[in-house]
Specification:
Layout: H1 8-21, H2 25-36, H3 40-43, H4 53-69, H5 81-101, H6 106-135, H7 139-159
Helix pairs in contact: 1-2, 1-5, 1-6, 1-7, 2-4, 2-5, 2-7, 5-6, 6-7
Length: 161
């Protein structure tokens, strides 16, 4: 089936937000979308791997693992430098893939995805801390709500293509 992305900037912004919340979610969702809707524009690019069903499955398993790992007491804060870098890269890969598939500029997509992911990293971090403090809920509960938001939004986004 041919991919038709009519508003790639909104999809990339959404994927960037998801990358800020869960780093592996954006590439997993993007790869799942592209593996079901191949784009000829990606075939001769370095992003062609994102259209592979195998890549989509591997990234999905990694994303699910991140959902579990996030609840562990040993999980580092998402605003630690390595986490920010990985979320930035995650948003960039998702953004570049979506823009390239939709005839857009690969670099513009990467920048939009990356910047959005970094902003969402800080926003979601402080929102989660505030929710834990004011809702009198333990952190893993708020994290599970965050997982549900990421999963629901990702499934909804995948349905729009």
């Amino acid at each position: 089936m041919k991919i038709v992305i009519t508003k790639p900037h909104w999809q990339v912004i959404t994927l960037g937000i998801l990358a800020g919340m869960r780093s592996m979610s954006a590439p997993a969702i993007t790869s799942k979308m592209l593996s079901h809707h191949h784009s000829k524009r990606l075939e001769r690019s370095s992003l062609n791997f994102m259209q592979s069903a195998k890549t989509a499955n591997i990234l999905s398993v990694m994303a699910l693992g991140e959902f579990v790992g996030d609840k562990m007491p040993s999980a580092p804060d998402r605003i630690a430098l390595p986490a920010i870098i990985s979320r930035s890269i995650s948003g960039a890969i998702a953004g570049a893939s979506i823009y390239k598939a939709s005839r857009g500029n690969l670099y513009a997509g990467a920048i939009l995805g990356s910047v959005t992911a970094v902003a969402a990293t800080f926003g979601s971090f402080y929102l989660r801390k505030t929710m834990v403090k004011h809702a009198n809920l333990i952190d893993p509960i708020i994290g599970s709500i965050e997982d549900a938001i990421v999963l629901g939004t990702g499934l909804g986004l995948a349905e729009t293509v």
